[in-house]
Design brief:
transport, binds adenosine-5'-triphosphate, Rossmann fold, alpha/beta, ABC transporter ATP-binding protein, single chain, Alpha-Beta Plaits
C-alpha cells in the first residue's frame, strides 16, 4: 500500500525580508485528516509561512508541496480553504451573497451553491441568518461567516488563523466540533491560535516556532509525556533533603516563605520515581502533606520552550514523525 500524499510537505522552507530570514529552514509535514497546530510568539513567522503555503508569498528557498502539488497551481488552490484572522468583506453583501461570491471564485456551480450554502451556514451556526447584510453581523457572526467561506468548496486542506478569537465559549466549542468533523472527513487542518488550551484539545500534532525556526514538533502525547512535574509539600526541609530529591529529578522551584510549610516543585522523567520521593521525604524526618503529580499543559510547555530559547540560538529540533 502506498503512503497517502501529505497535505503539506515543506523542506528547508525560508523567506528572507530585507536580508533577515523571517522563516528559516522550516521542515514540516501534515497528513490528510490531521489537525496541526502551528504555534509561536508574535513575529515568529507563522503568517509568512501560511502565505507561502497558500502560494501568496514566494519562498526565498526550500521547497513546498501542498496536496501533492504547487500552491501556485490553480487546481491545488481550488482545494484549499482559508480563514484569515481579519478577513475583509463587503458590508452591503448578505451572508448568502458573500458565500455565493466565494463559491463562484472557487469554481462552484450555481446549482451546487444552492444546496451547499444553506448547508454550511447551518454547520457554522448561522442557519436562517444568510439573508442579513454582513454589516449587521456581530464579530462572532462574521467569524462564523468567514469559516463558512473557508469550508464552502469542500477543501481538502483548511488553514484557520485564530478561528475563535471573536467567539464566546459556546462558539468555541462549536468550532472545535467543526474541526473534528473536518478531520473525520479526512480534511487536514492547519490551525494557528494563541488559545493553547483549545489547541491542546483539538490538535493531533503541534509545532512550536520562534524566529522562523521549529523549536519542537510532535504529537500532543509526545510533547506532554516528556516530563512530570511533582509538587511536594512538607512542614520543613531538613538538611540534605533537597540534595536527595535532586537525585530523582530536576528541582524547579522551592518555596520556604511560610513558617511551618515548604513546597518544592520537582520535575521527574517518570512517575515510577514518585514512591521513592515519598520515601526520601519520610526518611528525612519531614512530615509529608502533599505529593501531587501535575501534567504540564501546553501553555506551560510553550512558555518553557519559548522563554528558555535564547534569541537566535536554538536547541536541535526534536522532530517526531
Ligand atoms: N512583507 C514583509 N516585509 C518585511 N517584513 C515582513 C513582511 N511580512 C512579515 N515581515 C516580518 O516577518 C516577521 C514575521 O512576521 P509574521 O507576520 O510572519 O509573524 P507571525 O508569527 O504571524 O506573528 P503574529 O503572531 O504577530 O501574527 C516579522 O518580523 C515581520 O515584521
Amino acid at each position: 500500500m502506498t503512503a497517502p500524499t501529505p497535505a503539506i510537505e515543506t523542506q528547508g522552507l525560508s523567506k528572507v525580508y530585507r536580508g533577515r530570514a523571517v522563516v528559516d529552514g522550516l521542515t514540516l509535514s501534515v497528513q490528510p485528516g490531521e489537525v496541526f497546530g502551528f504555534l509561536g510568539p508574535n513575529g515568529a513567522g507563522k503568517s509568512t509561512t501560511v502565505k507561502m503555503l497558500l502560494g501568496l508569498v514566494l519562498p526565498s528557498g526550500g521547497s513546498v508541496r501542498v496536496l501533492g502539488g504547487s500552491p501556485a497551481d490553480p487546481a491545488v488552490r481550488a482545494r484549499l480553504g482559508f480563514l484569515p484572522e481579519q478577513f475583509r468583506f463587503q458590508t452591503w453583501m448578505t451572508g448568502h451573497e458573500f458565500l455565493r461570491f466565494h463559491g463562484r471564485l472557487a469554481g462552484m456551480t450555481a446549482d451546487d451553491l444552492r444546496t451547499r450554502i444553506p448547508e454550511v451556514l447551518e454547520v457554522v451556526g448561522l442557519g436562517g441568518r444568510g439573508h442579513e447584510a454582513l454589516g449587521g453581523y456581530s464579530k462572532g457572526m462574521l467569524q462564523r461567516a468567514g469559516l463558512a467561506g473557508a469550508i464552502l468548496a469542500r477543501p481538502q486542506l483548511v488553514f484557520l488563523d485564530e478561528p475563535t478569537s471573536a467567539l464566546d465559549p459556546i462558539g468555541r466549542v462549536e468550532v472545535r466540533e467543526i474541526i473534528e468533523r473536518l478531520r473525520g472527513q479526512g480534511v487536514a487542518v492547519f490551525l494557528n491560535s494563541h488559545l493553547l488550551s483549545e489547541v491542546e484539545q483539538v490538535c493531533d500534532r503541534v509545532a512550536f516556532v520562534k524566529q522562523g525556526r521549529v523549536l519542537q514538533q510532535g504529537s500532543m502525547r509526545e510533547l506532554m509525556g516528556g516530563v512530570l512535574p511533582l509538587d511536594v509539600r512538607v512542614d520543613t526541609l531538613p538538611p540534605g533533603l533537597l540534595d536527595t530529591l535532586a537525585r530523582y529529578g530536576e528541582l524547579r522551584h522551592t518555596d520556604t516563605n511560610t513558617p511551618g510549610r515548604a513546597s518544592v516543585e520537582l520535575w521527574l522523567q517518570h512517575e515510577d520515581a514518585i514512591p521513592q520521593v515519598a520515601r526520601a521525604v519520610l526518611d528525612s524526618g519531614a512530615h509529608l502533606y502533599a505529593l501531587t503529580p501535575r501534567r504540564p499543559d501546553l501553555e506551560t510547555l510553550f512558555l518553557e520552550l519559548i522563554e528558555d530559547t535564547p534569541e537566535a540560538s536554538y536547541a536541535p529540533e526534536v522532530a517526531h514523525a
